[in-house]
Amino acid sequence: MTRLSLSLRLAAALMLVGSVAACGPANQNSTVSTYAVGSQGYVRYGTIVGMRPVQVAGTRSGLGTTAGAVGGGVIGSTIGGDWRARTVGSVAGALLGGIAGTVVEEGVTSGQAVEFIIRSDDGPDQAVIQTNEQGLQVGERVALSYTDRVRIARAANAPPAGYSPAGK
User: Fold this and answer.
1) Which of 38, 41, 86, 93 is most buried by its number of CB atoms within 10 A?
2) Local mean pLDDT, 10-residue blocks, the chain (168 residues)
3) Which pLDDT score is estimated for 36?
């Protein structure tokens, strides 16, 4: 194997790993989009009355498939001696790489979350699905933040359940 061939294989493998890793989940409960910065929202308070674990399905955006196919095709094209063998290797590599990229993308972007049922102080019960980094439990007071999406967080200084300011 020539030094150039080895370098091409290594570069293709690194591109494949880097592009598939970019498919991973970027948003945690504490991550907001750039569009949310400076946006106005409102907060309501409530109490968690129920919760259950849920499975978040992985994405199939095509990015993993594309990255895998390109990487596999490049790596496959370095196999064999003549142009026919390299062509067959490239096609086979692209097919196998595309399948592997799809599987990796779906696996990396799937995960666990919790569906919280919240009895709002001033409205109907609500269901919010998010991760539970704070270790929230049934019976806890939470703040529901409505901005680019709904998030719940432990309410440190929330008014007690059933509180209504004077005049309302």
Assistant:
1) 93
2) 53 52 48 69 90 82 84 82 82 86 80 90 89 90 86 78 57
3) 65
SS3 13: helix
What pTM was estimated for this model as a whole?
Answer: 0.55
Strands 141-146 and 111-120: unpaired
Q: Please name the residues in contact with 148: beta carbons below 8 A apart, sequence gap of 6 or more.
A: 32, 33, 35, 36, 39, 41
Mention every residue, 6+ apart, whose C-beta is less than 8 A from residue 130: 29, 113, 114, 116, 151, 152
CB atoms within 10 A of CB 126: 15
Sign, CA dihedral 33-106-22-95, equals: negative
DSSP string covering 22-62, please?
A: TTS----TT---GGGTT---EEEEEEEEEEEEEEEPPP--S
Q: Which residues are registered as beta bridge partners of 111? A: 56
